[in-house]
Amino acid sequence: MKQNKYDESIFFDKYSNMERSKKGLEGSGEWYELKKMLPDFRGKRVLDLGCGFGWHCRFAIENGAKSVIGVDISRKMLKEAKDKTKSEHIQYICIPIEDIDFQENFFDVVISSLTFHYIQSFEDILSKIKKCLSSGGEFVFSVEHPIFTAQGLQDWCYDDKGNISHWPVDQYFKEGRRKANFLGEEVIKYHKTLTTYLNCLMKSGFEITGFVEPKPVEELLNTVPRMVDELRRPMMLLVSSRKR
Amino acid sequence: MKQNKYDESIFFDKYSNMERSKKGLEGSGEWYELKKMLPDFRGKRVLDLGCGFGWHCRFAIENGAKSVIGVDISRKMLKEAKDKTKSEHIQYICIPIEDIDFQENFFDVVISSLTFHYIQSFEDILSKIKKCLSSGGEFVFSVEHPIFTAQGLQDWCYDDKGNISHWPVDQYFKEGRRKANFLGEEVIKYHKTLTTYLNCLMKSGFEITGFVEPKPVEELLNTVPRMVDELRRPMMLLVSSRKR
Fold first, then answer.
1. Which of A14, B76, B111, B188 is 20 to 30 A from A204 via CA?
2. pTM score, whole prediction
3. Tens of pLDDT, residues A111-156
4. Residues A16-70: tens digit of each pLDDT
5. Residues 195-234, chain A: which have Cβ within 8 Å of B?
């Protein structure tokens, strides 16, 4: 299923009001880790799958990329992305990322931020990425952590007093569709195991070069109420890899 | 801390009665996956860290290994291991695995089954393994999954009727000591994140070549009561790697 939640007005407005939407990369808790895993963009041809407002596309150009193509299913997000973009070297394409069909070896770098948990098959998208990425090219992505997506509801368990008691994990090995609650809206996500993400990469001929479960930086822990709860379970997973 | 739980009579007797102790490798649920990740042993010098009853040592010799050294802290387990062993090419050494100090490049293969969650620092043992493993050598290990060790008690959450509701995850990013319940006894384990296991490997110059969260085979699901619950959360993690 290719759900296009971000084009629904209520959801779009809520998402647009998140820190990561207003402040961009610096408003994303995982950026300080993801940034370290990105390759040197200078002279590179870059593909961003699920580019949203285009923050990573512009970051790549600002850091020397030769050209960037950003793909996203959401018309509303891409309209904003274009409004924010001055460079002629970024193109935005409005299609589901499952439908990409670029030429062989067309890119040097493929990035994707928090998108693959919206698509059903990691194997399928990976085979498309492999095709259009040149040998030695880098593929870096973030996803919601399998521990975060497994049970489905994406909420804590609470005790009688309403305090968090722990994070529930269930149906881990049952991959597939989940109805999650995100910003008070029902959103369809697809749970995959860690084994699926990592083994698909290795079996498709990618070398894993980095693996990070980001946690909040000290500053956020000290200033944002309840941020300390983010140390109780991993929410995201960042992986960098290289096509052999 | 170097706890030697397996030399306590009550615990030893209980452990000795587990399927994996009586039947050996074929009695271990994860063996069918681990087996596939092991290298060709022919002509190889092998180290087994936390060898217990010596099942993997003997498997290596039966499959052509030149020599095997098995290391374990438990005198009782090694006594049984020796009783079960006929080959002259297996040596058992009774020391904590943290204390190994072999010559450089002494081994071609290092294996370790369900042992590293008993030791505090993966980084430290890895630097010792790296030293005594030759370049291009293989390092394959299994551990309890970080999702299994995080909260600490290692038990399910149950509903009012006593049925399993889910698996609890908590204090994931707080690595270190946990008091777990294993076979009705209190056992000290050390939780580590997935990031620690995988990033330590990569930063130490190992290439990750396999990553599997084993799940029960179909036959067990159909014959063993409640085995189906093992699909609800990952219990173990198997990793294969190669020293560059």
1. B111
2. 0.95
3. 999 999 999 999 999 999 999 999 999 999 999 999 999 999 999 9
4. 888 888 888 988 889 999 999 999 999 999 999 999 999 999 999 999 999 999 9
5. 195, 198-199, 202, 207-213, 215, 231-234
Of A172, A174, A212, the CB nearest to B199: A212
Residue tagged 């804590």 (tokens): A156
Query: What tens digit of pLDDT does each residue of B34-90 get?
Result: 999 999 999 999 999 999 999 999 999 999 999 999 999 999 999 999 999 999 999
Q: Is residue B166 part of a domain?
A: no
Between A147, A202, A212, which is nearest B169 by CB?
Answer: A147
Task: Please answer whether residues A233 and A165 qualify as being in contact, where contact means their C-beta atoms are separated by less than 8 angstroms.
Answer: no
Residues with Cβ < 8 Å from A81, sequence gap 6 or more?
A: A51, A52, A53, A54, A57, A70, A72, A92
Q: Which domain holds residue A69?
A: 5-145+193-243
**A172 contacts in chain B (CB < 8 Å):** 147, 213, 231-234
Beta bridge mates, A69: A47, A91
Residue from B173, B177, B193, B146 nearest A227 by CA? B173
Per the structure, how many domains does chain A have? 1
Q: What is the CATH number of the domain that holds B131?
A: 3.40.50.150
Measured between CB atoms, which of A174, A209, A234 is closest to B172?
A: A234
The whole-angstrom separation of Cα A82 and Cα A222 is: 36
* Cβ A133 vs Cβ A242: under 8 Å: no
CA–CA separation, A87 vs A190, rounded Å? 34
A150 found inside a domain: no
- Which of the residues in chain B have pLDDT under 50? none
Chain A residues whose beta carbon lies within 8 Å of the beta carbon of residue B156? none
Task: Give 3-state DSSP helix, strand, coil % of chain B, rounded to 5.
Answer: 35, 30, 35
The answer to whether the beta carbons of residues A118 and A221 sit under 8 Å apart is no
Q: Output the six-digit token pair for B77.
A: 């387990």
* E strand residue ranges, B25-171: 45-49, 67-72, 90-94, 107-113, 133-144, 157-158, 164-169
